[in-house]
Each structure stands twice: as structure tokens, then as C-alpha cells.
Amino acid sequence: MNIQRPRQPHYERARVLEIVKPFYKKPAFNAPCMEAQLTKETRKVDNPYEAIVAREARNWFEQSRLVAFLHVNSIRQEDMFKVQVALHRHQVTVKVYGKSIMQKAVEGTKFEPILPLFEAKTALVFGPEERKINQLLSVLKKTPQLVLLAGIVEGRLLSKQELMAYASMPDLTTVRAQFAAVLESAGGKIVSDLQCHQQQLVNLLDAHARGNDAEQAETANGKVADS
Known about the structure:
Layout: H1 11-19, H2 31-43, H3 48-63, E1 66-72, H4 77-88, E2 93-96, H5 99-106, E3 122-127, H6 133-141, E4 146-153, E5 156-159, H7 160-168, H8 172-226
Antiparallel strand pairs: 1-3, 1-4, 2-3, 4-5
Helix pairs in contact: 3-5
């Protein structure tokens, strides 16, 4: 018997062997991982507590006029607590939610585009006023473990550079006062321009009247001297 070159079986036997040859299905790519994921999804059960926390997160988004997103690097809990205390003094709240909770909170709302920011650990900062961004930037300068990613101000999603530019702008009250001063100065200039010709005419008439009075006085004095 030659093992390297075995003899071909008989024709009938070869047909039988071909028919009874077992057929194995080719496994899909990463089949164990896919099966584990499918099993996990089928066993997934909605957690009522997550629904409550998601509702709370949505309320924070809807009621806050300033929302900032911070990427959280490796940081001690003690340092994180100091940041929370420093921001709490300015009436700014720090929250940390998981991706599943944020997906339930913002899915189907105008805040849904922020979901890609939660692929990693991300902290949320909620403020009652837009101008709280100055206090937030001041605290973040002392905490390099927290990186500002983006923010929502006046209903618009802004990048880090846009937030810093917004912080450098004066507040709305100051801008209104400056605008009112410009309007007042422009109005005063218009009034002065309109009254300029009238005032010149009054001055000329006044000077002319004074000249006539002086001539009449000189004439009267001359007549008295002649008499």
C-alpha cells in the first residue's frame, strides 16, 4: 500500500464515498462574538431605574441654558469632588451618565447629535446662565484631567473654540448699553445738524439787530450834539 499515492477506489465505491462525505457549514467571521452579542441582546431587559435617570437627564438638558461636555481622563475622586465643589459655588452642576442612559434621554429629541460624544467617559456640566462659561473655563484651567469638548449655548451646539470666543464677548446687558449709547449719540448729532442752520440764522439776525441799534444810537447822539 502506497500512502503517498493511494490507489483509486472502485467506481461504485467512489460514488458511495462521495455521497456519504460529511458537509460542514463554513462559520461566519467572528461567529462566537456575534453569537455572544445576539445572546446579550436577547437577554437584555429594560431597567426602570435607567428610565428614571434618563428622564432626569432630559430635564437637565431642557432647563439648562448652558450645557458643556467634558472628556474625563484618569482623575482621582478627590480631585473630581473639588471640581464639583468649585463649580457648585457658581450654581453649576456636574453630572456623569452612561451611554445607555444618554441614549434613552436624548433619542428622538433635538439633542440626539451629541450621542457620539459619549463613546468614552464624558461628564456633563449644566448652568442656569450662559455667562457661567467664564467660571467653567477658570476651573478647567486648574484641572487638566478634564478636557472641554463642546457645549450647547442658546440652543446651539458650539465647539471648544467657539465657546472660548463666546466667553470673551461682553454680556448682553453691556452690549445693549453700548448700543443705546451709539443710538443716543447718533440721534444727538442728527438734532444738532438739523438745528445748525437755524442757529446760524438766529446768530446773524441777532448780530444785524445789534448793528442797527448801534447805528441808531450814534445817530441820536450826533443830533443831540448838534442841537
